[in-house]
Amino acid sequence: MKKLLLPFNDTKYSIYYYEDIVSFVKLLKQRPSKIWGLDIETAKAHSDTRAGLDPYLSKIRLIQLYDGDGNIFVLDCLNLAYPDFKDLRLWITDKKFIAHNAIFEITHLELLDFKDMDITCSMILGIMCDRAERSPYDGDETVSYKGFSLQALAKKYLSLDISKTLQVSDWNSPVLTDAQISYAAIDTIVCYDLALKLFKKIKKYNMLKSYKLFKRMLHVISEMQLNGMEVDKNKHTYLIQRWKEAESTAYLKCCKYFKDINLNSPKQLATWLANNPRFKNILSAWPKTPSGSYTFNRSEISDFIRIPEIAALMHYKQYSKLLSTYGEGLTRHLNPVTGRYHTQFNLAQVRTGRLSSSKPNLQNMPRDNAVRSMFCLNPANKCKYIVADFSQIEMRVAGALSKDSYMLKAYTNGDDLHTLMAAAITHKHPSAVTKKERQLAKAVNFGFLYGMGAKKFITYVKTSYPDPITEEEAYRIRGIFYETYAEYIAWSNQQRIKAEKLGFTRTPLGRLRKLASDEIYTKAVNTPVQGGAAEVLFISMIRLRNNIKRLGYKAKLASCIHDEVIVECKDWDVDAVTKLVEESMVFGMLKLFPDAPVNGLVEAHSALSWADAKL
DNA sequence: CTGGGGGGCGCG
DNA sequence: AAAGCGCGCCCCCCAG
Q1: Which residue has the higher pLDDT, A365 or A136?
Q2: d(Cα A375, Cα A365) in Å, to the nearest integer?
Q3: CB within 7 A of strand B: which residues qualify?
Q4: Which whole number is the average pLDDT over A233-246?
Q5: Residue A90 class from Cβ within 10 Å (0-12 exposed, 13-18 middle, 19+ buried)?
Q6: Quick one: average pLDDT of A391-404?
Q7: pLDDT in tens, A552-569
């Protein structure tokens, strides 16, 4: 044991540094604190560049615990054996912790078998406060404040400057310097103080329910991130080969029309268009980007898509997109230890309360069967993917929130709202509605739900429907939407009035989103609906994970895509867990909206691959 | 050489 | 008066 004195922020702290876990735990037990600041330092355990950050490529070097009363206990794990942690695990079970970016601590500690720790995340508190206090239109008064790192939030909320220069120091070094140990200790103090301050704000803003849901999600996310998604690399390689061939064919065709032009440069394309005599007569009708240059956005220029030059260009862009985003580049995210994609799920970042996914983003994989079938389990492991979807979750949440009797009646009867809308537009009986008409109605429902204008609807239809519609027709259809969902429209207007008065809107569980005045018309309506759908999903996933653990099934969450969950499950438990998934999702809906109709709410299937489990 | 904005596009 | 929403990642291009 080594004791260090740490003067920091006008206070004197004591650091107790241990290399022996028995005395470490013995001392911890003497402290009365129930809430502890927690941080870990990790060292590289692999040559990969991500080593030190990725739980599979790192080893924990230090565990730092702050008792909230001037004492920091630091355990150096360099020379500890795995079974040693038993006493620490036991000590941890009835304590609460505070960490910054708790997902990092949870995922790393999970691999040492520290399960379901009660951790508050100061980063999530910080993001939630930010979303409540600042719309993107507000800018940011704190110039140096950027992102939600501990350093940034310490400066913003505690007016503290903490150095991060030692973070990248060598945590593999056999002997750590006093400066390194002090650096490691400071983070626990700062995140402890930060969380106390931010937690008061959360209560003041009435966001406790919402925060508690996020907190419970930490373990769900940790499970998904650690589990990851398995891919069949051969399928991917084959796919890339096919895309490359298609791209080069398309490129050769483009060469006839575009001389010395980078097809990936919108700027060069715009110049080419402006100077091409063939386009002289239609140039005035060519749509433009917000900043005023000619656009080559596929959905904006659907009027000109039949012109050979444009058709060739679009064909090239299609494969160029696939190759650049879903080609070879994707594989750099494969984990060298597990061979899987361990996506990062970002909690609380999205203003409506959804999750987002990055490195790689698994939430925007092409719907293409060939792509999704590369997410495929090895049959030798005797596992299946269970894929379950909410059916039309946002429409259902819209109905539940507004209590629109037309929507609720349809869901109660098991009717399809898109088919009903198609029937209303065409004056047909629902049973006579064609596939094409339903497709248009789908665009009607999705578009007008959040206040789309008739004009935009025309271009929107062009992308999702084969035949164009006239302006007159667009206004007529908009009228039908407003009549059909009159109660929903009334609720929408109420939401707008409320948001105008308060300057913010909330999700059903109370997550606050500040809105600038010109955001209100659409976002005051969208946020409760999209946010409500996210909250339903969160409740469902928490329930599902708890029940899988409680009942001892061999299954783990693998991913989620806004209204869809993917579970990896041992063959012999697939039937039982599929039922559990369905039950959990219905439970999530009813927990948030007790009166919601739930027939046809969930669809679930299982198979070796993501593609096959969707059928 | 890096960072950031714009344009574009994949998903829900 | 008019207004779909929510993301992340790719490439280009320009500023520092």
Answers
A1: A365
A2: 10
A3: A 146, 266, 289-293, 295-300, 314, 317-318, 321-322, 325, 361, 363-368, 530, 561-564
A4: 98
A5: exposed
A6: 98
A7: 999 999 999 999 999 999
